[in-house]
Design brief:
Keywords: Hydrolase, Metal-binding, Zinc. The chain has 346 residues and is of the alpha/beta class. The chain has 17 helices and eight strands.
Length: 346
């Protein structure tokens, strides 16, 4: 793990303080919130030979980024009915609320749904909306949807995904944006320039995974097609000019520390640049990506930043405020949440 730095805040309980800090999660995949125990329940419903808990946990073990993608695929293949999606959505909101998350902007992969062909996207959208609304009523945490295309499935399939998002937004205002995930090596952001322009014209906000498993050129490409937030941006520190641009423009970075280690995109915790980015004035936010697959969650990422990277509690308050500002919430809600963050003392 990274160095341990003495903290001036140790007279209070850091984890308790951070749990109560109002937090916004900007980079989390709905399909990646499924716990091994939940996967067993899904497998018992749908598989001829159901997974044991040990076998389910083994699925969450992998050696590299491609291994992670295969794990993600194996988990999503157990989502067979719209009710499965309603269930995992409700469970996600419940889990987020327990960590002090007040709002989340959640990726849902229409790209995988279309590729699998088992379920109609409108049926899944209706189901996750039921889960979202029940969860917000019961736990108070709001959710927006970011519709994700899988970049290595190609431009034509991404076009289908983004146009579905634009069409469904009229019925579901909780759909706020689009993004591209998947294997950066097989789908440069440049390929999606025209589609991003079309999505922007349709009123959708733009995000992109970039600089997770590829170099800074991938981040430049995401910026150049209009991405308003960058997911990961792990390799930005390889390019001083890019670091300057990110700081100058205050382009929000959806950073996922534990995820980067578990996928092998960063060799170890000591090497992760999250504090370097923060100290350089970049707009850092902390996120969990696919929590049970990485053995962490958003609260865990904040605790990790405090204990292992030398962030003070006041600096983590700033990180929390960054996430509010970087969200796609309307101005009045942002202002209300920023005031909550600023006034929070616990």
């Amino acid at each position: 793990m990274a160095r341990r730095i003495p903290q001036p805040d140790l007279e209070i309980d850091p984890e308790g303080w951070l749990r109560g800090l109002p937090k916004v999660e900007l980079h989390i995949h709905l399909e990646g919130t499924i716990l091994p125990e939940t996967l067993v329940v899904l497998s018992q419903k749908h598989d001829a030979e159901p997974l044991t808990l040990a076998a389910a946990r083994q699925l969450y073990t992998y050696a590299d980024f491609i291994g992670f993608l295969m794990t993600f695929k194996a988990v999503t293949e157990r989502l067979r009915t719209p009710d499965d999606y309603e269930f995992i959505t409700y469970e996600m909101v419940k889990t987020l609320a327990k960590q002090g998350v007040v709002h989340a902007e959640v990726y849902i992969s229409f790209g995988i749904l279309n590729k699998q062909g088992r379920l109609a996207v409108p049926d899944v959208m209706e189901a996750i909306e039921r889960g979202r609304m029940r969860g917000e009523v019961d736990f108070g945490t709001s959710v927006y949807w970011i519709i994700d295309a899988v970049r290595h499935f190609g431009v034509e399939e991404a076009a289908v995904v983004f146009r579905q998002a634009a069409e469904m937004r009229a019925e579901y205002p909780s759909i706020v944006g689009i993004g591209i995930g998947g294997d950066e090596a097989r789908g440069s952001a440049d390929l999606f320039r025209e589609l991003y322009a079309e999505a922007r014209e349709a009123g959708l906000r733009l995000t992109a995974h970039a600089g997770e498993s590829m170099g800074p050129g991938s981040i430049w490409a995401a910026i150049n097609i209009g991405a308003e937030r960058i997911g990961h941006a792990l390799t930005a520190d390889q390019d001083p000019e890019l670091m300057e641009i990110l700081a100058e423009r205050q382009i929000p970075l959806e950073m996922n520390v534990t995820s980067n280690i578990r996928t092998g995109c960063c060799v170890d915790f000591e090497k992760h640049p999250v504090k370097e980015y923060f100290d350089a004035g970049l707009m850092v936010t902390l996120n969990s990506d696919d929590p049970p697959m990485f053995g962490s969650d958003l609260l865990g990422e904040y605790v990790l930043a405090f204990k292992n990277y030398g962030f003070s509690l006041d600096q983590l308050r700033e990180v929390a405020a960054n996430a509010v500002e970087a969200s796609f919430l309307p101005p009045q809600r942002k202002l209300a949440l920023l005031q909550q963050v600023e006034r929070y003392e616990n």
